[in-house]
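[Meeting: bench + compute handoff]

Bench side (C.D.) handed over the final construct sequence. Compute side (W.E.) agreed to return the predicted structure before the next meeting so the bench team could plan truncations. Sequence as handed over:
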Amino acid sequence: MATSAIKPTIPWFGFSFAAACTTLIFFGFSFTLYPEVLSRLRPLVLYGHVATAAAWMMLVVVQAGLAMRRKLALHRRIGAWGFGLGTVAAVTAFASALVLRHEHILQAAIDRRAGRIAFLSIPLNSAIVFSVLLACAYAWRHRPATHRRCMLLAAAVLTLPAVARIPGIDDAWRMVPTDALILLLVAIDLVRERRIHPAYWIGVPAIFAMQFFTLQLFLDRPEWWIRTASFLCGV
């Protein structure tokens, strides 16, 4: 009885979570959209990333809404286009990270370039984790429970670069909102299912491990990473 009363809230939570992530992402990027992208002529890949990433996030909300209303046939038809759009957003995310890092490195004084080069690990981490989660969601699209959780994790991961652009948030706290959203997903599983789904058992520790690893690359600046990042950024 209790289980049947709880299960119907799953689509409702997914829609609310996707909408919250999308709102946070749009809010965070609003601080840099005009000064970094729209105020002057930029490489086309930046405009492509802005357009595809924004469209993908809005589509996630629409898809969650369709699932909430049990319109699963339409949800699946749109989903095929959504994965294509997400793939383009992921590819342009990699390219945009390299383009922006290239510019920031060249603008820095010589004694600060190493830090700006090493910082490439942070945006690349978001792009890599998002791409892996999107691929997993596609691979398990016929397993709704796993698919849904991979998509929610992907939406949560995209909030990190958005939060980093909000003025007034100290560097030490920039991962907190994203990690809180991820842990909220785990907590909901524990409350609703009385267990943690394997997608979270594997995905969440992997996400946190990647965060730690890429943060250490940025802070420690090992020589091999500086050489690699310099090559990727073309400096």
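W.E. noted at the follow-up: The longest helix spans residues 72-107. C.D. will use this when planning the next construct.
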